[in-house]
Amino acid sequence: KYDITASQRFRHLVKKHPHKPCFLFEDQVWTFQQVEDYSNKIAYLFQKRFGLTNGDCVSLIMENRPEYVCIWLGLSKIGVITAL
Q1: Which residues touch 22 (CB under 8 Å, ≥6 apart)?
Q2: Residue 31 to residues 36, 50, 53, 57: CA-CA distances in angstroms?
Q3: Could you tell me the pTM of the whole model?
Q4: How far is CA 16 from CA 9, 30, 42, 51, in A?
Q5: How far apart are CA 21 and CA 45, in angstroms?
Q6: What is the rounded CA–CA span in Å between residue 68 and residue 57?
Q7: Mind listing the pLDDT tens digit for each residue in 9-39?
Q8: How far apart are CA 66 and CA 18, in angstroms?
Q9: At a CB cut-off of 8 Å and minimum separation 6, what does 84 contact?
Q10: Residue 80: closest CA among 40, 48, 53, 42
């Protein structure tokens, strides 16, 4: 049995490999730390500015790119359910 969320597991990977590539997309390289920082900004924005909280549900529709995963990850950090 696993009692760890995806965002908790990701934080563990950030601590272990902060400067390693997490995403290679077109001509971009995103490190684990960059993804962590971006997703934290998303979490803060949606929680403080838009008032989303644990258990709320949003739909995420956008093209396939690193920001898509970062937005999902940030929302999961505040307990928001993301319909992909």
Answers
A1: 30, 31, 32, 34, 35
A2: 9, 27, 27, 28
A3: 0.91
A4: 11, 15, 22, 32
A5: 25
A6: 16
A7: 999 999 999 999 999 999 999 999 999 999 9
A8: 16
A9: 60, 72
A10: 53
Are 36 and 13 within 8 A, CB to CB? no
As given in the structure block, the two tokens for residue 27 are: 């001509």
What's at 48, amino acid-wise?
K
Q: What is the DSSP string of 30-57?
A: EEHHHHHHHHHHHHHIIIIIT---TT-E
Nearest to 42, CA basis, from 82, 5, 84, 4: 82
Residue with tokens 């500015």: 49
Joined tokens for residue 81: 């359910």
